[in-house]
Design brief:
Helices cover 41% and strands 21% of the residues. By secondary structure, the chain is an alpha/beta fold. Strand 11 and strand 12 form a beta hairpin.
């Protein structure tokens, strides 16, 4: 069964034979590489690439500087083929506020890490998530589910070192970071920024941290209109031109971001009751989810819509809390994809000064009455309304508990 290492002290006492470290080239991972070198631990640094066209030269250089083998794996196709589409089926908004981000990438990273760890003979997989990050259970839980025999090292769970201390230690080794005090997690679906002045939601938002989205004041005065075409609940065309999902996300990130769409700031619940403040940008995700919601409203019956909404919220909560590969998470994902089969049609949207306005929706499976024309009204003329009203008001009339005043 898995063994879990949750402090730097335990890491020194129970030194792995060979550790695979999930490594993006950031502050936390680089500090841990430096620490592992002082322990004499053999390390394979795995860079899981999602959306970047080339391997990170900086990450590779830093890994080798600290004596680690560097492995780069591009999983972009899998991200757009399996993980991001699941978020569309679920309209996956964290607490119905903003698109999920690392929720989609962490299980994919864990799955890739398990495979590479087996190939390189690693007995432990390490990551740098803290107790203030849900990524800790997403990574640890996914690894434990996928391979119960491999160890998991998450030393910053129990060894809470200030980011300033890590930066100072790495600075002595001649390593600096452009983002400085801010911690940034970015994938094509969302860019998440935290730490520094963003740590407290009581601080005024530092808008200099945004990179994908323009400030509304600087967005174009002229609006842009787009049409998204869906089949089976997934976008397949932009302005009537077929487009691959990954290309669509790239296009909409640029277009919607230019018009100031997709910024959000909110608090994320952690497993220990307190909340973590995050700022994020997700232009494409914001637009695609909005269009998907509109189409679902046009196609689903009231009962289907209610049931699907409940399942979608449960799936989102489950995967946020690390259950992507668990039985419940997998079952709910299949159900959502199956429910989305009739979702086909076109949604037209206007992007302007940070807003997304629905202009029209059309679907061959839509239940809006104008699709049925005069035949619907003719059929309703034959309907007997008295029994319907009598039945619909029966319980209220019998109970007589209403306030007559």
């Amino acid at each position: 069964m898995n063994r879990f290492i949750t402090t730097l002290e335990e890491l020194a006492e129970r030194k792995p034979r060979r550790m695979l470290l999930l490594y993006s080239g950031g502050v936390d991972g680089t500090y841990l590489l430096q620490h592992l070198q002082t322990l004499g631990t053999n390390v394979t640094a795995l860079h899981v690439r999602i959306g970047d066209s080339e391997p990170s030269a900086k990450a590779a250089e830093q890994a080798r500087l600290f004596g680690a083998e560097f492995v780069d794996v591009d999983v972009t196709d899998r991200f757009f083929g399996e993980f991001a589409p699941a978020a569309v089926h679920a309209d996956a908004l964290y607490q119905e506020q903003f698109p999920v981000g690392s929720t989609l990438t962490r299980p994919l990273m864990a799955q890739t890490a398990v495979r590479v760890a087996r190939e390189h003979g690693c007995d432990v997989i390490g990551h740098t998530a803290t107790y203030m990050q849900n990524s800790s259970i997403r990574l640890s839980g996914s690894i434990a589910t996928l391979d119960p025999e491999i160890g998991v090292a998450a030393p910053f769970l129990g060894s809470d070192l200030p980011r300033e201390q890590k930066l100072a230690a790495l600075g002595k080794a001649g390593i600096t970071f452009a983002e400085g005090i801010h911690s940034i997690d970015s994938n094509p679906w969302a860019r998440v920024i935290e730490c520094g002045s963003l740590e407290s939601p009581e601080n005024r938002l530092d808008e200099s941290v945004f990179r994908w989205t323009r400030d509304v004041a600087d967005a174009p005065d002229e609006a842009v209109e787009i049409a998204l075409v869906f089949e089976g609940g997934q976008p397949v065309a932009l302005d009537e031109e077929p487009i691959a999902f990954g290309d669509l996300v790239h296009r909409l990130n640029a277009l919607a971001g230019e018009h100031g769409v997709g910024r959000s700031s909110g608090l994320e619940d952690t497993p220990f009751g307190v909340k973590n403040h995050e700022v994020r940008e997700a232009p494409a995700a914001t637009v695609i989810i909005k269009a998907h919601q509109v189409l679902a409203n046009a196609v689903f019956t009231a009962q289907e819509h209610a049931v699907r909404g409940s399942i979608a919220r449960e799936w989102t909560t489950t995967v946020v809390q690390g259950g992507w590969f668990g039985h419940l998470g997998q079952s709910l994902a299949k159900c959502l994809a199956d429910l989305d089969r009739p979702l086909a049609g076109t949604v037209r949207l206007r992007l302007h000064k940070g807003t997304v306005t629905v202009l029209s929706v059309s679907s061959p499976n839509g239940l809006y009455y104008t699709r049925f024309g005069k035949s619907f009204h003719d059929s309703m003329l034959e309907y007997s309304y008295t029994p319907w009203l009598s039945q619909a008001t029966l319980s209220s009339r019998l109970r007589r508990i209403g306030d007559p005043r």
